[in-house]
Amino acid sequence: MRFLPALMLLAPSVLSAQAVPVKPAPSPAALEAAARKIVASVSYPTFITTDAKGHPQSRTVQPMAPDSSWAVWFATNPRTRKVAEIARHPHVVLHYFDPVTQSYVALVGRARAVRDRATKDAHWNPTWSTFYPDRDTSVVLIVVQAERLEIVSAKLGVEGDQATWRPPTLTVRPPPRR
After folding, report:
1. Distances from the Cα of 145 to the Cαs of 44, 66, 162, in angstroms?
2. What digits encode the pLDDT tens for the residues 127-150?
3. Which residues, at least 6 apart from 22, have a Cβ–Cβ distance to it below 8 Å?
């Protein structure tokens, strides 16, 4: 029992939580700049859809760089499961991971298949021509319009919440309709 008073004197300092300085959240401009830098470093992100049973399906794709409104285009065979999956459930994720910096961007948005030749020509990447010699029938383009971005990069000063690890998120405003 002689140790109890000493322990009680120590308890407040031992049990008190050390105050961890909280970093201010990055500005939307800083988040977007970090996201664009990470996305530019990843040639082959993972495209994630949902199948008819509600299960996630992922595959590697070769997209164009996002435009100013965060629309991302890539080509695919019109008979692939991803085309049917986005027709049924257009909510998707493009996940960009840079292993060198241990950074990622999850681009969450809506996808749709585009079949008309003029739009294909406007968003065509010449490297796709090897895989799709007949642009009229052998290929559709998928466009993913981002709704939000989740960004994590300790190297760029963009880190998740210390308690929950929830990543900083940037809401993307859709482009005006024409």
Report:
1. 18, 9, 30
2. 999 999 888 899 999 999 999 999
3. 162
